[in-house]
Amino acid sequence: GADAILGRQAARESAARTYARSLPVVPVRARGMTIEGADGRRYLDCLAGAGTLALGHNHPVVLEAIRAVLDSGAPLHVLDLATPVKDAFTTALFETLPPELAENGRIQFCGPAGTDAVEAAVKLVRHATGRSGLLTFTGAYHGMTAVSLAAGGDTTARAAVGEADARITRLPYPYDYRCPFGVGGDRGAELSARWTATLLDDPKGGLQPPAGMLLEVVQGEGGVVPAPDAWLRRMRQLTKDRGIPLIADEVQTGVGRTGAFWAVEHSGIVPDVMVLSKAIGGSLPLAVVVYREELDTWHPGAHAGTFRGNQLAMAAGTATLRYVRENRLHERAARIGARMLTRLRGLAAHYPCVGDVRGRGLMIGVELVDPARPRDEYGALPAAPRLAAAVQAQALRRGLIVELGGRHGSVVRLLPPLTITDEQAEAVLDRLSDAIAAAER
Ligand code: PMP
C-alpha cells in the first residue's frame, strides 16, 4: 500500500529528498495533468516535473515516439555518435531557435540534467574569453553541482558545501515586489543597468571583466519572478558593449512555458548562449547548450560525458518540440496563463495574505505574506513561508499538487502542462482558492 511505500522510502532515502516530503503521494498512473495515487486518489498536477512536462504525463505523441525507437531496433546508447534520432532532434530544435542562433549556432550535448548544461555553458565562456569571473543574480537557481550551485542565489545552499566561489559576483535581480532599486519597470531597469555598468567600468573596483553573465529570464525556483523586458534589453546591451557573453538559462522557461517558445523572445534579446533542459527531453533526461559559433573554441573532447546521447529522450524531445510548435501551445499558454493571472489577482484583492501575483504564460507565482506584521522598508509585507506550506498541504487534500519556491519558500508556484484545459484551469484556481481560505483560518 501507499503508506508502506512512503514509510520505506522515508527510512531509506537521503535526508536531502525534497518533493517527497511535502507531497506524500505515490503516483502509479498519470495522463495529461492528472496523477493517480496508489491510494486511488486523483490529483491535478501543477508541478508537472518542475515544469518539465510541457505536454503533461504520457502524451500519446511522446509515447508513440518512444515506442517507435524501441520497435525499430535502433541502439539506445551510442555515446555521442550521430544517429537519425539525434539528427531529427537537432533539426527540430534548431527550427525553434532565434534565427541568429539557428543560422550560426553550435550545439553541445550535455547531460543528463540542467545543472550539467549550466556547468558546460560557464566552462565554455570561460574558455572562449580566457577570463574566469561570472555575473549572476540574487535569487537565481541554476542547479546543484559545483559551478551551478555557486552561481545560485541561495547562500545557505552554497555554504552547506563550502562553496564560496570568489569569481562569481551576484547582482540584484529585478524582483519588483521587493524592489532592490526602489522602483520597478523601466526606471528600475535603467538604474540596474547604470549600477552594473559602474561596477564593470570602475578601473579600481576589483570587478575584472567577467567571462559571462548568467541569467534566468523568469526566475523559477527564486519565486517566479519575471524580469522586465526593458531590463533584459539593458543587460543585453551592456554585455554586448563590453564583449561579455550573455548566457540565458532557459531550463525552466523554455518550450512554450512563458507564452513564447523561448522566454527571450518576449524582449527580443538574443543571448550568446542558451542553456536548455527539462521540457526539451519530452519528460526524459536531456540537456544541451546552444551558442554562437565564435564561442566554439573548444578542442575535440574538451567537454565529454557518457550520457550525452539518450536516444529515447531525443525522440521524446523531438515529438514535444514539434507538437508544441505545430499546435502553437506557447500561444495557448499565454492565453490561459493571462486568464489565470487575472483570476488570481482577484483573489489577491480578497485575501490580504496574497501579497503578489505574478507570472508569464503558464509559469505563475502567488506570494503569500503576513498582513499582521509591518511592511518592510520597500513597502512589502513580510513573507509567510508557514502559511505557504499550509496552503500546499490544503491544496493536496483537495487534489491539487503545487510546489513552493522563492527566497523564503513563501511563493506557491503553478507550472501546469501547456495542454491544460480551460476547465482544468478553473478547477486549479477553485482548489487553490479554497486551500488559501482553509490555510488562513
Ligand atoms: N536552471 C534552472 C533555471 C532550473 O529551474 C533548474 C531546475 N529547477 C536547473 C537549472 C537545474 O536543472 P536540474 O535540476 O535538471 O539539474
From TrEMBL:
Q: Pathway, per Swiss-Prot/TrEMBL?
A: Amine and polyamine biosynthesis; ectoine biosynthesis; L-ectoine from L-aspartate 4-semialdehyde: step 1/3
Cofactor(s) needed, names only, are: pyridoxal 5'-phosphate
- Record-linked InterPro entries: Aminotrans_3, Aminotrans_3_PPA_site, Dat, PyrdxlP-dep_Trfase, PyrdxlP-dep_Trfase_major, PyrdxlP-dep_Trfase_small
Under Enzyme Commission nomenclature, its number is: 2.6.1.76
Query: What's the top EC group for this one?
Result: transferase
The family database entries (Pfam families) matched by this protein are listed as: Aminotran_3
* Record keywords, A-Z: Aminotransferase, Pyridoxal phosphate, Transferase
The answer to whether keyword Cell wall biogenesis/degradation applies is no
Q: Which GO molecular function annotations are given, in alphabetical order?
A: diaminobutyrate-2-oxoglutarate transaminase activity; pyridoxal phosphate binding
According to its UniProt record, which protein family does this protein belong to?
Belongs to the class-III pyridoxal-phosphate-dependent aminotransferase family.
Name under which the protein is recorded:
Diaminobutyrate--2-oxoglutarate transaminase
